[in-house]
Amino acid sequence: MNPLHEDDLPEMLPKLKSETSSSFLVTSHSPEIMEVSTPSLHRIYNFIGKLIAWFFSRSHIEKILILVILAFTGFAMLQAALKLIASVISLLLLATLVYLAYKFVVPNNIEQEY
User: Fold this and answer.
1) Which string of b and e fits 24-37 if b means at least 16 CB within 10 Å?
2) CA separation for the pair 85, 72 (Å, rounded)
3) Is the Cα torsion angle 73, 77, 83, 86 positive or negative in sign?
4) Where are the domains of the chain?
5) Cβ-Cβ contacts under 8 Å for 56 (sequence gap 6 or more)
6) What is the pTM of this model?
7) Helix residue ranges per DSSP H, 8-59
8) How many alpha carbons lie under 13 Å from residue 20 in its C-beta half-sphere?
């Protein structure tokens, strides 16, 4: 390694700037990606804002009714998801039992026939 002298620093500064600007060419694509995703985020935030404004413009009874409907819908979706998970677990247990029955019952019957 070469020792650095204070006299070399002013000469090295432009060289380092040119190296760093050329080595980070990938960052020039980052703003384009952000520009593409930003309008969709603005639309989502705008929709949520309109939805909240619509909700708060309702009367108290309508708000309660909306919340009850949302709660029932949420519980129904949760129940459906839990039933799906229970079905998958049941199928896995059934497959395991069938495999174990095949593993321990079928080889014993084959050995007994000979």
Assistant:
1) eeeeeeeeeeeeee
2) 20
3) negative
4) 28-57, 60-114
5) 63
6) 0.49
7) 9-23, 30-56
8) 6
Write the single-letter amino acid at 10: P
**Token pair belonging to 13:** 């500064």
Q: Encode the chain (114 residues) as per-residue pLDDT tens digits.
A: 455 666 676 777 777 767 666 544 444 455 555 454 577 888 999 999 999 999 999 999 999 999 999 999 999 999 999 999 999 999 999 999 999 988 888 766 565 555
Q: How far is CA 90 from CA 83, 84, 97, 102, in A?
A: 10, 10, 11, 18
CA-CA-CA-CA dihedral for 86, 89, 94, 96, to nearest 10: -170
The string of DSSP codes covering 56-104 is HTS-HHHHHHHHHHHHHHHHHHHHHHHHHHHHHHHHHHHHHHHHHHHHH
What is d(CA 86, CA 79) in angstroms, rounded to the nearest whole number? 10
